[in-house]
Write a structure and sequence with these properties.
The chain is an alpha+beta fold. The chain contains 18 helices and 19 strands. Helix 1 packs across helix 14, helix 16 packs antiparallel against helix 17 and helix 17 runs antiparallel to helix 18.
Length: about 550
Amino acid sequence: MTQRNLLKLLIIIAVTIVAVILVLPTVGINVLEIHLSDSATSQNVDSIKSRFPSPKYKTDVEDKIIRIEGSGINNAVMNEILKKEDYPFVREAKILPHWAEKALLAKRINLGLDLQGGSMLVLEANYAKMQEKMGRVLTDKDKNEITNQALDLLQNRIDTFGVSEPQIRARGNEAIELQLPGVRDPKAVKAAIGMTGRVEYRLVDETFSAKASQNVKEKGLKFSDDYSNIDSVRETISKDISLPSDKELLFYYERDQNTKKIFPAYPVVLEKAVSLAGSDIAMATPGYDDYGRLAVNFTTTSDGAKKFADATAKKNWGRRLAIVIDDKVRSAPSLNVQINTGKAIIEGSFTEDEVNMLVRIIKEGALPVDLKIVEERTVGPSLGQDAIDAGIKAGIVALIAISIFMVAYYKAAGLVSIIGLFLNGVYALALLSWLGFTLTLPGLAGFVLTLGVAVDANVIIYERIREEIRSGKSVKTSVHLGFERAFWTIFDSNLTTVLAALILSMVGSGPIKGYAVTLTIGVISNMFVALYVTKFYYMITTSGKDKKKLSI
């Protein structure tokens, strides 16, 4: 073997070893670590262990920590364990990093919403309300900027819930689509998303507040069961009491002691001018008010301290300063002292979850526009598993059918192409793993398709070799010319496929982009196998003595 051929062999071996290592986090042995609450019982531990039967999984229990080791452990399995309705005693679950992830920055191939199940939400931006407050019509440029800002903030909010590979994308500049793989009942996520996070301190106008309350009594205005008519009720009251343009009517929210939910109790009229905004808050932490109720302690910025001192100055003593969170008045304490320290409290009969969420959202910043959930879908895990099983079955059937044809038609050369097909699959999976790809159903279809067309290059090469042999050339010369003359045909055909896939990835989104990525990666790995690995094999086998026959 020449030095050049030895170098090629080493490259092929190295690439194959690296590819196998990159695939290990996805198809290899992983460890799921489950942390139980202190109140967890031995029966709770047994219920978790029964979910992972031996000998497929190895289970180790140590002081409220269960470690499950085995293949097939992925984010879908982890999310099932985190379901509080099934396992309320589970405090935390995480897949420990695979050694390959540390060694080569490998990543797992995650399953998309359509394969592992989860939730899909569509949020619509309320630009009309925003324009009313701003006093001007928003341009498309304004809406695009607002949408991009909202996308970033939503990404931060969802990341805190540990959703694996959420897909967040804009639908034009009017709506945003969220795909939450593994999330079956996204109550907490929806609460965080639906909360704009706009915190404001605004002075109360007692005169108009009294008129508004009297109007409600006289007309007997009532809300619908879901409070969906609250805006129309506000408009009716505002019109009846001839509310000035510099004031706004909102509702004071109290908590129902039975349902523990907040509801609009009575109207409050506020100055539109904001005395202190959430952007003036530098730091927020959970705490308690003077009565031991949950609240949010905060410290303002230097500018915020000046604004707060002015709002609480002696001129306003006796007036109420309302704490408004997302257009809901949660508290309205009377002013009787000026606050110059820049330190205060947000109170409003909060629950622990509300306090933690409010603190988190204040730190991240409020959404630039109100978002309303207009569409919600839940995809069950059985549908995803059926799709995976069908995809695997299709891949196996395609592989068997291709193998039978290639071996029957090209004999030993067909067997070489099948080995190359196997390597092609390993290389493609390795690239997808390295990129941390999220596999969707169309992406799975793209991967299966690459198996079907992976032998195209071999067919072109083999037919050129056969033509050269029939013309009377030697086996060695025929092999050399076959690869040389087939190169540009293979390159051109694959280039057009890659160009089409690139266009799909640029103009498409979500599933279409996933299909394009898997197709592109499959084509690239296929060209490497056909024009480098397979060529190397034939150059080595025909490099010695002049071979008289070739099984092709």
